[in-house]
Amino acid sequence: MTEPARHRTIKALRALAVAAVAWALAACSGPRSILDPAGPSAQAIADIWWVMFGGAVVVWLLVVALLLIALLRRDNTRELARPQRLIVGGGLVLPTVLLGALLVWGTLDSARLTGIGEQPEAVVEVTARQWFWEFRYLDDDGNAVASSRDVLAMPLGRMVEFRITSADVIHSFWIPRLGGKMDAIPGRVNRLRLRADHDGAGTPIRGQCAEFCGLAHAHMHFDVEVLDDDAWSAWLHGHAVDATPAGGAP
Amino acid sequence: MLEKIGPWRLTGMAAPLALWAAHFLAVYIMQGLACGEGWQRQRVAGAEMVTWWLLLATVVALALIAWMGAWALRCRRRAAFEVGASGEADRPAALAARRRRFLSTLTTLVALVSCIAVVFTTIPILLLPPCA
Amino acid sequence: MSTVIQSPEPIDPRENSARLEELHRIWGNEPGIAGQLKAVNHSTVGMRFILTGFAFLLVSGVLAMFIRLQLAWFDVEVLDPQRFNQFVTMHGTTMMFLFAVPILEGFAMYLLPKMLGSRDLPYPRLSAFGYWCYLFGGLFLYSSFLFDAVPDGGWFMYVPLTDSTYSPGLGADFWLIGVTFAEIAAVLAAIELIVAILICRAPGMDLRRMPLFAWAMLVTAFMIAFGFPPLILASVLLEIQRAFDFAFFEVARGGDPLLWQHLFWLFGHPEVYIIFLPAAGMVSMVIATFARRPIVGYTWIVLAFLSVGFLSFGLWVHHMYTVGIPLLALAFFSAASMAVAIPMGIQVFAWIATLWSGRPWMRLPMLYLLGFFLIFIIGGLTGVMLAMVPLDWQVHDTHFVVAHLHYVLIGGMMFPLFAGLYYWLPLATGRMPSESLSRTAFWMVFIGFNMTFLPMHLTGLLGMPRRVYTYPEELSVQWLNLLSTAAGFVMAVGMVAIALDVFISLRAGRRAARNPWNAGTLEWAVPFPVPQFNFASVPRVHGRYPLWDQPETDQASDRADGLLGKPGDGRRELLGTGILSAQPEQVIRVSTSTWLPLLSALALSALLACFIAKFYLGAALMLVPLLALFAAWAWTTGHRHAPLRLEAEPGLMLPSQYACRNAPGWWALMISLLIDGALFASLVFAYFYLWLGTQPWPPEGIAVGGWTLPLVSLALLAASAAAGQWAWRALGARTDGEGAQDGRPGGNEARARGGLAWLLSAALGGGFIAAHWLALAGPVGAPQVHAYASVVWTLAGFHMLHVAVAALAAVFVAARLRCGFINAARPLEARVTAALWRYVVAQGLVTWAVIHLFPRMG
């Protein structure tokens, strides 16, 4: 192959690769896609996913390769001289090291993701019911200043604390593009902190009930509107309620 | 008493894993009490007191498992010697020696796995505050 | 090692065939339909479990196809939401409780006695009863279709969705009662299998020569013993709450819905491994045969089974990462979830090492094992992903988990099961599977499976939750779902092809030669067709693979001149051997065909049917026939007039089980108490879990009461214990086995005294029940008031029930003493009852401390 021809081939291959990646990314995007993060928490988890996905592929290929060697071995190849070593190496040492590392990473990340020690900049009370979501927006004194139903507004780039409970059965509050889910359980208030760094232009951001809650479970979703500071204040005004003490959800 | 739970018995073989279970339950309960009832939450030497208790449980569990493992290893050596002495015969004494060797080998390995499992349980204790 | 064991001179052929004929007569099922209904033999019962399990698999598969059709596109409506929820619930429930666990138990019941060189299981009537409970429980659950009350709360039945407020109909009741009924089979099978593996092995098969399938089943059975009680307890509590308005899970009255989740997953996670381990045992058997060498790393595989058995109990909260539990607690469970992958790795590499050191033979069962490896490893790797707390927060309750669990369960259980099915098919049918249709079926299932569930990972990552009957178009998952549906049907056709293939081979398959795969383990030592007694004389074993070590083993066990070869006085006899050494220890005489199992199961069904119809008087009345049947059962157990010493083979005299320390009756009690102890521990856990969330304890309005009545009841309990001990001592029993030389019955006077003492202990037990009732009725009040009252009454009631059972047992022993069945040389029944009594008293002390001491401490 001549030099220019090779260049052309490499270029074509590169274009193809770019196109493939672009297609893959497009396939991964979506209003509830875990792989299309719009906030730091979801981003960190997506990173974990990609690393573990790659690792899993490598491990799977390795084990299957060993298996195929073992199965398709002909008489002219050597049989395993010291099978114990395979068991100790593959079964004991390798998993212990890999899993130990994963455990450390997962534990540290879980602490970081929940924002231990961080001060939230807005607080929203979430009450799940069969089958809709109620959101009440609290001011600094803990009074509800605004409320909405099946639409959640969030200030752009600010940490929001959600105080999640349920008025009937167990539901689960989940905005995949922002982070992990948290169950809404009657009699308990669970806290979840999320930040949206992206306003959802292009692909919207949606939330969904993730715990089976009866007949209309599938339809128990809500829209997330991420607003900059001005729009956020205006939105709160537009959805204002008579100030009532927090926790007064019926 | 020890005769009954030695590494050459079914119960002895499972004992290290039972210790893992006891340790697991102990740290889970202590942690639950700390967060639910506020037990031992005062800070001592840079960590909450309950964390120290959890670590103490780990040390005790690891020590016991290590002791069992060492015991099993000794039994294994002795049994291996007896097997060598009794040859390939199918006599009851020779069979018993081979059985002891098998069971004490197994117990040694069980102790090893139990140790790893207890260490795994302990990693988060070192990395996280008890009630966040 | 090739010690040839043969009787000094060959047996006379005529004598031999006379003995064989006699054995066939003794062990055969009775003719006709009645004979089938009365059958208790392990091959018959095991085969029934397997066939019924497959029937439920097909039914549940049809439900799955409807589910897939509904999800094929975003705007179809094949099922309305209610139907969809019902089908999802029934699909999961059936697969878990009516297919996976029972069919594996069926395989174990069918195979284990053959593998261990035994003639039957030690409690044939128990396994028959278990089968009927399983069948009737399953039918009970499915009868909900007739009443339009199909359960729709999910197979996990989370409260409050399933309590009487949010599921007012009978659906949840059908689930709770039907599933618990069917679980009786699992628990009974656990007892049966543990004892069979511990004391019914062929002589010489000491622990290190036990087939790995037996090790797997031993660990599995112990896991059932500890894992099923929490679920049984949870189901009973929820049913009590639904029927009688108790408050365990109701927030407004101090209950906690998370208690259900803890108890359910405390069962639910070990359950996955309860399903996987038997399959792993099958893999270990099949792989050795097709690698044509002994398994490599036997010790390591046993280590793996054992470790999985324990570690899997530390995983339950990993289904609850999103309920708001402190991070550190989550991390403990994450750690255990990671740790359990280590023994999994050990197993997989031991199997690979076996193949690598052998000469692999790619026949049909091996093909299924190849499928198992490729699929199961993916399931294991995604399992590690789910163990990772942050990632689980995202993918929990999405289709990613659906994909994962099908990779684990279908890959880890169904593929090995089909490998096992084809491997052991010749044993059951005497014919070989075809190698053409069956290969086509394999590829359809394999490709169909992967195309169904591999895309589903992505479906989940794109944000499709579980248990939704539809999804919005904007998720763009319709093409993935359509692919899953289409491939799902390919897999379904493959499954039908497998069923067809098995059927064809049954009719037209090539006749199998004896031991067609050249396997090494004892189940292949039997002749075709397999006689009901398996072995004309119990084989002696000198290695891990008897047929490879000593090819003449099968011939020797065909001849009726070895151990138990001479049919005694027409009773079914098993050989009992030592737990560790497997040296002959006793001759166990087991029951023959009888109506008792079927009738008991029918009475129990009638009772439960009355209960679900809220006809409580009828349910109470049905206790009468049920207790009568159980009494008849106990009265006719085994053969009590058997001589105390029996000739097992020329020159070998062994005690009968009534005079042996390691009697099956004794071990049955031990294992039952283990199971009962787990049940009790779950209840105590429930008490303290509710305590943790309730301040003050007891809540306002409920008093602790005075000391007098609690102390009186404690005194009565102690007195009954003392009477029981005295009654046991009065017998002067000898349990060393050596005392069984003479059948000297105790003096009439001693027997009368002993009987009186047993009656006294029963009476004192009755007094305790009354006193404890009074001690609680005043201060605690009605159980409906608060979760505290509910749990205290349940705890006390649980123990009272035990006292009542122990009292009945004491009356039974008194009657047996009077009739001369029990004496110093045959103390088994008295020994069992005395031990039961001790256990009940110990349980009473814990109960008493929890109820009366603990609330006073705070």
Could you characterize what this model shows?
The complex is a heterotrimer of chains A (250), B (132) and C (858). Chain A is of the alpha+beta class and 250 residues long. Chain A contains four helices and eleven strands; from the N terminus they run H-H-H-E-E-E-E-E-E-E-E-E-E-H-E. In chain A, the strands form two sheets. Chain A has a six-stranded mixed beta sheet. A five-stranded mixed beta sheet of chain A has the order 4-10-9-6-7. The C terminus of chain A is likely disordered. Chain B has 132 residues and is mostly helical. Chain B has one domain. Helix content of chain B is 80%, strand content 3%. Chain B has a two-stranded antiparallel ribbon. With 858 residues, chain C is mostly helical. Among the domains of chain C are: 143 residues; 41 residues, no CATH class; 165 residues, Cytochrome c oxidase, subunit III, four-helix bundle (Four Helix Bundle (Hemerythrin (Met), subunit A)), CATH 1.20.120. In chain C, 65% of the residues lie in helices and 3% in strands. In chain C, strand 3 and strand 4 form a beta hairpin. In chain C, helix 3 packs antiparallel against helix 4, helix 7 packs across helix 21 and helix 22 runs antiparallel to helix 25. Chain C is globular. The N and C termini of chain C lie far apart (67 Å). Chains A and C meet through helix 2, helix 3 and strand 9 of A and helix 4, helix 10, helix 11, helix 12 and helix 13 of C.
